[in-house]
Amino acid sequence: MKSMFRQVFLHWLLCSCTTQVLGVLIQTAPGTSTNGVIVTELNKTVSLVCHINGSSYQDENLVWLRNGATISLKEGNTEGRSSVCITPVIQADNGATFTCYLSKNSSLRDSITLNVTYGPQLSGSEEITVEKEEALVLQCDIWANPPVQSVSWTFNNTNVDLEATGLLETTDGFNTKLSNGRAVKSLHEGTYECSAIHAIYGRHTKTFYVTVTEKTFKFPLFPMIAGLVVVFLTILLAIIARCQRIMKCFQ
Ligand SMILES: *[C@@H]1O[C@H](CO)[C@@H](O)[C@H](O)[C@H]1NC(C)=O
Ligand SMILES: *[C@@H]1O[C@H](CO)[C@@H](O)[C@H](O)[C@H]1NC(C)=O
Ligand SMILES: *[C@@H]1O[C@H](CO)[C@@H](O)[C@H](O)[C@H]1NC(C)=O
Ligand SMILES: *[C@@H]1O[C@H](CO)[C@@H](O)[C@H](O)[C@H]1NC(C)=O
Ligand SMILES: *[C@@H]1O[C@H](CO)[C@@H](O)[C@H](O)[C@H]1NC(C)=O
C-alpha cells in the first residue's frame, strides 16, 4: 500500500517536473484566462506576456501569431520573454487567437483567445422623411456579444400594431427592421423606437421621427432619353438612306 502510494507520488512528481522544465506559457494582464479565453471589453487594454519555462531555452527567440499571422516585434522583445499589447480592444479582436511559440521548436507553444463583450450600437435619433406610397424602412443594428436577449419596437409610445399598420417586423442576429412598401400618412407618421436588451449592457434604444410627405412630381428622365435616342436614330437612318441614294446617282 505504502509503496503504491510512493509510486503514484513519484509519478506525479515526475510529470509535474517535466511540464515545469519545458514550456512556453502566456500570462495576461489585467485579468485571468480560463481555459485559454480572456474576457474583455471594447476600448480596454490587454497585455500578454509569453515566458519560456525551462533554463536550457532561456535565451531562445519567441514568435507571436495573431490568428496564424506573425506579429512583428521590436528588437529585444523576443528573447526568453516577449510581450504584446492589444490597445484599444476593438470588435474585430473578438475571437482572435494569440499564439506564442519557441522559434526553434514550434511544438513548445501556448495560445489564448479573446472574448470581447459589447452591447448593441443603438443610440440617438434619426429623422426620416418618406413620400406617401413610397417604401418605409426603419432599421436598427443589434449586433452584440453575447447576442441581445430581446428586441422590441414602439410607435407613439405604444407597441407597434403590425396588423393595423401593415408593418412587417424582421429580426436576425444583426438587425431588426420595420418596413412597409407603401407609406400612409395617417398610419405611419409619428415616433418609432427600437429597443434591445442586453444581459451585460442593459437596454439600448434608438428613436426615429418619421414624416410622410405628399408625392413630388418626378421628371420622367428615362423615357425622355429613350425618346430622344429614337428620334436621333431615325434622323441618322434618313440621312444615310439619302446619302446612299445620292451616291447611287453618281455611280
Ligand atoms: C470606445 O471608444 C470610442 C472612441 O473613443 C467611443 O466612441 C466609444 O463609445 C467607446 N466604447 C465604449 C464601449 O466605451
Ligand atoms: C514554470 O512553471 C511553473 C508552473 O507551471 C512555475 O511555478 C514556474 O515559476 C515557471 N518558471 C518560469 C521560469 O517561468
Ligand atoms: C520540441 O519539443 C518537444 C517537446 O518538448 C520535444 O518532444 C521535441 O523533441 C522537440 N523537437 C526538437 C526538434 O527539438
Ligand atoms: C464571452 O463572455 C461572455 C461573458 O462572460 C459569455 O456570456 C459568452 O458566452 C462568451 N462567449 C464565448 C464565445 O465564449
Ligand atoms: C403619432 O404621433 C404623431 C406626433 O405626435 C401624430 O402626429 C400622429 O398622428 C400619431 N399617429 C398615430 C397613428 O396616432
TrEMBL record:
GO terms for biological process: cell-cell adhesion. It comes from the Eukaryota. SUPFAM superfamilies: Immunoglobulin (SSF48726). Residues 1-23 form the signal peptide. SMART domains: IG (SM00409). It is a single-pass type I membrane protein. GO terms for molecular function: cell adhesion molecule binding. GO terms for cellular component: cell-cell junction; plasma membrane. It is found in: Membrane. The keyword Plastid does not apply. PROSITE patterns: IG_LIKE (PS50835), PROKAR_LIPOPROTEIN (PS51257). Keywords: Disulfide bond, Glycoprotein, Immunoglobulin domain, Membrane, Signal, Transmembrane, Transmembrane helix. Residues 30-115, 120-213 form the Ig-like domain. The chain crosses the membrane at residues 221-241. The keyword Signal applies. PANTHER family: IRREGULAR CHIASM C-ROUGHEST PROTEIN-RELATED, NEPHRIN. This is Ig-like domain-containing protein. It comes from Takifugu bimaculatus.
